[in-house]
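# nightly structure sweep
# worker-07 picked up a monomer target from the shared queue
# config: single-sequence mode, recycle default, output format = structure tokens
# input follows
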Amino acid sequence: MAFVGIDLGTTTSEIAIFDAKEGPRLLKDARGHAIVDSYFGFDRKTNKPVVGESVKSIAQSDPDLVVEQVKRYMREDVEFTLGEHRFTPAEISAQILTHLKESAEQQLGEPVTRCVITVPANFPDPARRATQQAGEIAGMTVERIINEPTAAALAYGYDEDLDGETILVYDFGGGTFDVSIVEYRGTMVEVKASSGNTDLGGKDFDRALVQHVTEKFEAEHGIEVIRDSGNYYRLLFACEAVKKDLSVSTHATVNIPYFMVRDGSPINLQVDVRRNTFESLIHPLVEQTEAAIEKALADANLNRSDINRVLMVGGTSRIPYVQQFVERLMGVAPHKQIDPDKVIAMGAAVQTAIIDGLTDRTIQDVCPLSLGTVVVRNHYGQMVDGQYSEIIPTNSKVSQEHTREYTPAAQGQSSVTLHVYQRDSQSGSVQAEINEEPNTEEGFTRLAERTIDIPEAADTNDIEVTYVYNPNGMLDISVTFPGTDTEHTFQAHAGLDDEAIARSRRKVQASRGAAPSSASSNASSSTDSFSWPAPDSAASAQASEGSNPARSSANSSPTARSQREHPEPDSQRTPSPGGGPTTKSFSTSSGDMEWDNVDWLKDVDASSSGDASDTSKPASKPASSSSPQGAPPEASWKNAPHFSDVKSLIDIAESALDQGRMSPQESSHLRDRLNQLKHALADNDSERVYQLEAEIMDIVLGV
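# output follows
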């Protein structure tokens, strides 16, 4: 049973294993590639999923069947429509991980069952959970989520003696930028501070070059290049190649014969690009990295002169202008001994050795983003709500205990509501909520909320809230009332939803034509839910900060790691191919579902209240053991809350019926189960829907 390290990147992904004799080494896929393009799509002829460089040819002919840069959507509750298939970002990432996993199994000759996956240091909590889900959907136990610059530091420190050195890791990948300050002390790798930008990467360089070439072409020929068309992707891939050429040459040409046709005549695209032109295009983007470097240095209480060396990580760091910028800024020549594209996966493999005790190296990581709660604050005599109160400061050591003291907002309160928040490292705002909703534009992400009863014997002027960010990426929370024995403990990071992961795994396997796995998810489940009922308005209950001076403490504990970053609103995202993601009204793929907002559960709650006089909603029909006569009206089941969960399966099953490869008995049985499924959807019978989903899956995969 193999244990691997995986760099699940925005533009490329790699998989590595740790050998006790050889150390970390990369594994190649079936095509002989150690670096796999993070592209996913469907071949229109075979209707089979494709991962890697082959997807680029699909993008040029069928752009609606391709997704790229899915990593930038891991934080969001969206779906991508690819022909007859619909997938969440976690499910698409699982397809890429499955490709890496199967390639490793072929090379190693044994099953891959465990993994460590890397993420950007500033990845928000929802994106981290989605990444862990992707690994579980792919059939692996995700032992640890580790930060990319930390992984790079592990890889560099494995073969080279860096004891006593303080190093800046400059990680500029295809879709994200991170910087970490790391100190090597014997076998200990201690992260002093991290910062970065999850929306800045080499793909932004590509887009800048595409825009430049497009403007030249349109000015010369008067023909518009349509974004996300097949021609657009021909241009994008050509510009990617020219970007690489300009790292070794002073000029290159974007040359695409027969790029378009006008009046029956072909039009070639040919635009010369000089290196200094390209550098002028990317200059504003590269300059954005300076602010993150300065913040990391400030948080580590260091100056530029304290840095002994700079390690360049990520494919974008290969660009000469980027290297020159870093050398000018830091005053030292950057190091590139290990391939920047491979170093993160190799570091993830070293992390697997640390977990299994195969090396004496250890990590002390930080949480580079602030964690806190929402309070009502007394501001010059006026009570202002939705204010952020920090409990764990930016770049605090993982596993340290942080406590703050609060008071109830009103005298005589019977309960208090704790809203748990992350704040982006670049944000200086204290307005965490606006109209009781997260202020996402200023970098705030709500992780959880809980309403807690105040004990009658409590001194209500004293409520202590303690946060501990643990090595597994979970936030442990305790709320105590001094003078009583009452303590409420819970985790803001809920366990993964085993049932949702099993459904997603079946969907992914069905799309690949594989037999369903009998292995259940190994993800742990927390007994605490992510969403709790709102308190009674009479006992409105946010904590208050002001009359009681808040006190902070940070008591040192063991080692570890963590992070986050704010989610960008869906409306500000640039759509990806495949028609772009669509916001879902109902999701079962995330472990942090806010149950109070799910319509079907509201119906359940209403029916369980015992109010028989409420006739505003029709009673749910019991599941019938006999077969329904034909399918119900299409609108009744296509508009059902659970339709998006089983749409791909229905499409696959109906396609199997159309192909006529089944016996009459099999066709009749499958058609009957499909009709029953549509009735269950129309009746909003979730239990019956998922029971029939499993039956239909078995029939389709058995054909």
